[in-house]
Amino acid sequence: MSKYQSVRGTRDLLPSLKKTFRAIDQTAFQTAQKYGFNEIETPIFEFSDVFHRSLGETSDAVSKETYTFQDRGGDSITLRPEGTAGVVRSFVSEGLAQLIPLKLYYYGPMFRYERPQKGRYRQFYQFGVEVLGLETPLADIECLDLAWNVLKKLNLSERCTLEINTLGDTESRDAYRKALVEFLTPLKSQLSADSQVRLEKNPMRILDSKDENDKKLILKAPLMQNFLNEKSKDFFAKVIQGLEQLKIPYKINPKLVRGLDYYCHTVFEFTTTELGAQSAILSGGRYDGLVEMLGGPKTAGVGWAAGVDRLADLCESTLAHPKEEVVFGFAAIGARAEIEALRIGSQLVARGKKCVSLHNGTLKKKLEKISKLTADATTVYGVLLFDQDNGSIEIKLKNFVTGEEKVVTVEDILKL
Ligand code: HAM
Asked: FRET pair for 341, CA 20 to 30 Å: which of 88, 122, 177, 376?
């Protein structure tokens, strides 16, 4: 075994898995584009403050999971644990406010120092969408519909459940937080160490605790829905009505609070029971205060991100990859034939054809390899080239689907 292994929690996306990733991101890109979203790419690292300010000091993502280091200039830098903070930082620092409403999508690696397990990696990939500058619940509904359509295209919609909740506006959340603290304070000593800290800093995160004893204690906790003001109730009712009208199945989960601090109003997760403990495959919500938190003008925001690793783990065996129309496999015997094969192949590639050149092994081995190309193509032509004693090259064309074989010229091949 090599002394060098990939770092724990990271993995190589070998060709077959990468093919699945590519199929997923292409599906997501194309669907987002059809909804009028445009792609944005922000750096994979930012000043640490960007994440501290936006995700919240007490969120696990910031307090325990960031890859943070000091660069050679002495700045504190963090590898992005998620995409929203960077997009919002860009919105503010690039002065994009004049362009609202903005509908953006992105794709790329994210980094969290979490305990690796099935479906949980330290470098993982997100496809995400963000809508900036729209306060209306119509934006939430559109984002959810986009998510639903991506999952449908990946044949995953029947294998997951949309769980949705509202955190209300600031006034509703303040009232709820107060009630929650009143309920939990007498139980403080029984809470896990993490939750005791959260009780001081961000009590609503206790509802999200993974600690079994915490879970028992909060069973009787007051529910957010009883503290919503009229405005918040109305907002949520409109989102739900939209889901009904667009026929997107959902389940209201009053305990869903999400792990990041920037959310208000709508929060949601598409979950599956097929990946063990890592049930969320796509999640997001509304974050109306985030732009201001990062120093920009008051701007509404809503979006989500899908864990592409989790989607890939779910659909690696079920996703259909489109077949190539025509593929040429080249097998040459003899020095002149070998270089002629590359010359013809190059011309075919320039004409948009796929060519696979086999440079080693016996003719028999090369033919075996060409016949395997039929798994990914509708028609496979074997182009067999042989040096002749008189200095010429004989070219044979074999259709590997029909078995037909004939002697041809270079021009005959280029016409195919
Ligand atoms: P999040 O729930 O932290 O939200 O992550 C979104 C998705 O990323 C999760 O549903 C999950 O599928 C995937 N994910 C998270 N951590 C891991 C991991 N360690 N390994 C594999 N997959 C993972 C956000 O990141 C928000 N920025 C979403 C958002 C966008 N909200 C509004 N706009």
From this structure: 376
